Amino acid sequence: MSSTWGETVRISIFGESHGIAIGVVIDGLPAGEPIDMDAVLAQMKRRAPGQDKSATPRKESDFPKVMSGLLNHTTTGAPLCAVIENTNTRSQDYGNLLDVPRPGHSDYPAYLHYHGFNDIRGGGHFSGRLTAPLVFAGAICRQILERRGIRIGGHVASVAQIQDTLFDPVDIPAELLETLSTTYFPVIDAGKKEAMAALIEDARMSQDSVGGIVECAVTGLPAGIGGPLFGGIEPVLSSILFGIPAVKGVEFGDGFGSCALRGSQNNDPFYFDADGKVKTSTNHAGGILGGITTGMPMVFRVGVKPTASISQNQQSVNLQTGENQILSVHGRHDPCIVPRAVPVVESAAAIALMNFDGILTGGKSEGGWRA
Ligand SMILES: Cc1cc2nc3c(=O)[nH]c(=O)nc-3n(C[C@H](O)[C@H](O)[C@H](O)COP(=O)(O)O)c2cc1C
Ligand SMILES: C=C(O[C@@H]1CC(C(=O)O)=C[C@@H](OP(=O)(O)O)[C@H]1O)C(=O)O
C-alpha cells in the first residue's frame, strides 16, 4: 500500500490536504520510551506552512492530537495514532483543476488512476501537507534514536545555483547537528541564507518557483547495520525519501560525483584510531558499504524539484472539452519547498533507521526484519 511504509516500525499516513484532518498510525514502536512532546512540536513547527515569504502563506497550527499509544508521555507499545486538523483551506483555488490539470503536479495522472474521483482540493492525498504526519512520526523515532546516541541533522545544501557549505563527512560535530536540527531553514554557512531567501523571493515575484538540495547527516550509527541487496541502508532509505512529494533524486556519499573518480581516489582508506576503532580517513562512501554502515557518519543528499504550482500562464489541456487551454494556477504555494523539506528528510531517515535490526541495541541482532 502506497501510504503505508515500513515493517518493524510501520507508518500509515491518512487524510487529504483540504479534508477534516490528516494523521498517522505508527505500529511497532518499542514500549517504555519517554516522549518529549515539546520537542515533537518543535519539529512540526520547522515544517509547518506560513513561516515566511519563502513558504506558502497557508497558516496551520499543525498541532497533533495523540489518540492512542502514549500514556504518561511514554510509549505503550500499542499503535500510536496522531491526528492533525486542517483549519485553513481555500478549496475554491482548485475548482478548475480536475478539468484543467496543473503541469508538474499530480492532477493529471491522479485523474487517470482514480478515474476522476480523487480529491483535487489542495492536491488531496498527494499534497506536501501529508508530510506533517511524517514529521510527527519522525520526531517520535528520532527521540528513541537520540537516546542511543544517534543524531540526525540536515541543511539547505542549495537553492537553485546558490550553494551552502557541505558537511565534512569525516567530522560532523554533535553541536552542528543539534543546531541544524532545531532551526527553520538551516544552513551551515550563515552568509548563504540571505542570498537563498532573496533568490526565492525573486522567483516568487516572477510568479515562478525554484528547487534545490537537502543534505542530511546521521552520526552515532553502530557499524554493521543494514544488509545486502534490497534490504540495505541505501535502498530502504531511498524508498521512503522518494515518497516525499517533489523529491527527484537521492545520493549517498559522493553519489554521482564518485562516478567521475578513479578507484584510488574514491576508496576510503581504513585505519585504527587511538581507541582501536576502525575508521576511514575519507568518507566518499557516505558511511555505507555493501548497504551496511561502516561506523563513519552517514551522509546523503536529496534533490527537490521547483514547485509545480506557479501562477504565470502555462500550457495545459481541458479534459472535458478536449481542447488545449492556458492555465494560471491560483492559491497559496511554496515558491521553494527546500527549506521546509529539511525536517521532512530528517524525519524520513529516522523512521527508516528504526526498521533496521540492531539499531536500538548498538548493532547486536534482535532477530528482527533486516538481516
Ligand atoms: C513540504 C512540501 C510542500 C509542498 N508545497 C507545494 C506547494 O505549495 N505547491 C505545489 O505545487 N507543490 C508543493 N509540493 C510538492 C507537491 O506536493 C508535489 O510536487 C506533487 O504532489 C507531485 O508529486 P511529485 O513532484 O513527487 O511528482 C510540496 C511538497 C512538500 C514536501
Ligand atoms: C498546506 C501545506 O502545504 C501545501 C502543499 C501543497 C502541495 O501541492 O503539495 C499546496 C499548498 O496547499 P494549499 O493550496 O491548500 O495552501 C500548500 O500550502 C503544508 O505543507 O502543510
UniProtKB/TrEMBL annotation:
Protein residues bound to FMN: 125-127, 290, 305-309, 332
InterPro entries referenced in this protein's UniProt entry, alphabetically: Chorismate_synth (IPR000453), Chorismate_synth_AroC_sf (IPR035904), Chorismate_synthase_CS (IPR020541)
Alphabetic keyword roster: Amino-acid biosynthesis, Aromatic amino acid biosynthesis, FAD, Flavoprotein, FMN, Lyase, NADP
Cofactor(s) in the UniProt record: FMNH2
Biological pathway: Metabolic intermediate biosynthesis; chorismate biosynthesis; chorismate from D-erythrose 4-phosphate and phosphoenolpyruvate: step 7/7
Catalytic reactions on record: 5-O-(1-carboxyvinyl)-3-phosphoshikimate = chorismate + phosphate
Self-association state and partner proteins as the record states: Homotetramer.
Protein known as: Chorismate synthase
Source organism of this protein record: Anaeromassilibacillus senegalensis
